[in-house]
Write a structure and sequence with these properties.
Blueprint (H helix, E strand, L loop, with lengths): L2 E4 L3 H13 L3 E7 L6 H5 L2 E6 L10 H11 L3 E3 L9 H9 L3 E2 L4 H7 L2 H9 L16 H11 L3 E5 L9 E3 L5 H16 L4 E5 L5 E9 L5 E13 L2 E7 L6 H16 L5 E9 L5 E7 L6 H8 L3 H9 L16 E8 L1 E2 L5 E2 L2 E2 L2 E3 L6 E5 L6 E2 L6 E9 L2 H14 L1 E3 L5 H9 L1 H5 L6 H5 L2 H49 L1
Parallel strand pairs: 1-2, 1-4, 2-3, 4-5
Antiparallel strand pairs: 6-7, 6-8, 9-10, 9-12, 10-11, 11-14, 12-13, 14-21, 15-16, 17-20, 18-22, 19-21
Helix pairs in contact: 4-5, 12-13
Length: 495
């Protein structure tokens, strides 16, 4: 494998290219017209424009990406995450074109891409499931009857869903019909598939996911867990590894279950098996993501492995160079997704120019980004600017280092989630480890952030006044010293 095309953009494209470069592999960037001057385009050995700014005219057009491979002689495609990374049709097209997809098979993507077929595959290995339906439900009355049997509150979920779309929490029977119709409508609109199913709603869930790796020889290992419970709009904002609540015994059980889920589809490459953990520390299978995750750096930090390099090695047909017993957890890692969003305005995306952009530095701090000062945040894509990762010998040090890094991260021109990240790191519930996926709803309000911002502004103003006073005092002392010196010199001359 001498040349890889990265079918993505921004920070993940750069992150993949850097690992490929260390392996002596040439890289090809693809870009839309909006990304013509992007960092990943400049970093790659070659770059091909694949269309106009909207992703459905560029990054989501598989034929253009395959044509770019033919044009440049790239032998393999790394899809990153998002866009076409979990699209089985594209995976098959890549295979049919005689190219290598650095990822799982189309068949594995197909099964795990639908929550119902994923559950069916996982049940072969007796993986714990949240009580609910095992098939899609379309009849409202039948669905209501089943919901009563499961017990309220219940969760209606889109079978083809993700990101919270097509999902409805129903507290009582009287609301069921309306909420089901809304879920079906939203699922149809978002995914072209209105299939929904029912699960018992876990009231205080934690979102725990297990990283897995599988080679083409049937070897599958897990790389421990990531805690992803701090979310807004059902999407992650803060992640960490390991989780603060798992015991070694639970970790081992979840890891085995994750490996079994991967084994149920003969999984190849890097993937993530997601679970929910209830207040009793019982876990249940949620879904499998058949790609590299945004939060993969925290796993890299605690294991010392480069997951992108491992993906490439597996795609080249190499055997995993380690076994499960070779893997251990070392230290603790935190990740904050730095989004161009306004936490004071319901985390709505913000666009504009990065008037100031200075990243934090120092031991245990990693920034995966795709921007530099003066660049504009485009409106066409996900608003994530960077991933800020910190590492420490333990959770306390990782948190303290994250707070320091956030304070050093200087971004102006747009609103970001940096201050929200600091709020999370300093909140007693997070520090104690006693939190769940409702963290934002329970503890965060715009006023809480405004208050913190006002206090910081006041401290900064006081510091500025004190600095000015000190500077003024220093100038006066210097002037006095200069006068004394000149008199002394004159006196010496008169002697």
């Amino acid at each position: 494998m001498n040349k890889i095309l990265i079918a993505n953009r921004g920070e993940i494209a750069l992150r993949i290219m850097r690992s490929a470069k260390e392996m002596g592999i040439k890289t090809v960037a693809v870009f839309s017209e909006a990304d013509r001057n992007a960092l990943h385009v400049r970093y790659a050995d070659e770059a091909v424009c694949i269309g106009s700014a909207p992703s459905n005219q560029s990054y989501l057009v598989g034929s253009k990406i395959i044509n770019a491979c033919r044009l440049t002689g790239a032998e393999a495609i790394h899809p990153g995450y998002g866009f076409l990374s979990e699209n089985p049709t594209f995976a098959q097209e890549v295979k049919d074109a005689g190219l290598i997809l650095i990822g799982p098979t189309p068949e594995a993507m197909e099964v795990m891409g639908n929550k119902l077929s994923a559950k069916a595959a996982a049940m072969k290995y007796n993986i714990p499931m949240v009580p609910g339906t095992e098939e899609a439900i379309t009849n409202v009355e039948e669905a209501k009857t089943r919901a009563i049997e499961v017990g309220f509150p219940i969760l209606i979920k889109a079978a083809a869903g993700g990101g919270g779309k097509g999902m409805r929490i129903v507290e009582k029977v009287a609301d069921f019909e309306e909420q089901m119709q809304l879920a079906v409508s939203e699922a149809t609109s978002a995914f072209g598939d209105g299939s929904v199913f029912i699960e018992r709603y876990v009231t205080s869930p934690r979102h725990i996911e297990i990283q897995v790796l599988g080679d083409t020889y049937g070897n599958i290992v897990h790389l421990f867990e990531r805690e992803c419970s701090v979310q807004r709009r059902h999407q992650k904002v803060v992640e960490e590894a390991p989780s603060s609540v798992l015991t070694p015994e639970i970790r081992e059980k979840m890891g085995k279950c994750a490996v079994d889920v991967a084994r149920s589809v003969s999984y190849v490459g890097a993937g993530t098996v997601e679970f929910i953990l209830d207040e009793n520390l019982d876990f249940f299978f949620l879904e499998m993501n058949t790609r590299l995750q945004v939060e993969h750096p925290v796993t890299e930090m605690i294991t010392g492995l480069d997951l992108v390099k491992e993906q490439i090695k597996i795609a080249r047909g190499e055997v995993l160079s380690f076994k499960q017993e070779d893997l251990t957890i070392s230290g603790h890692a935190m990740e904050l997704r730095v989004y161009a969003e306004d936490p004071l305005n319901n985390f709505l995306p913000d666009i504009g120019t990065l008037q100031t952009y200075q990243t934090p530095k120092g031991y245990g701090v990693r920034v995966d980004d795709g921007f530099e000062q003066g660049m504009e945040i485009p409106i066409y894509y996900d608003p994530m600017i960077a991933k800020l990762i910190t590492y420490g010998k333990d959770r306390t040090e990782a948190i303290e280092r994250m707070i320091r890094a956030i304070e050093e991260y200087d971004i102006t021109g747009i609103q970001t989630t940096l201050n929200f990240g600091k709020f999370v790191m300093q909140h007693p519930a997070f520090v104690s480890g006693k939190f769940d996926t409702h963290f934002v709803g329970k503890y965060f309000t715009p006023d809480s952030l405004k208050t913190a911002n006002e206090q910081e502004a006041m401290i900064a103003a006081i510091a500025a006044v004190l600095l000015l006073q000190n500077q003024k005092s220093s100038v006066q002392q210097s002037a006095s010293a200069a006068t004394q010196k000149s008199n002394w010199v004159q006196n010496r001359r008169n002697v």
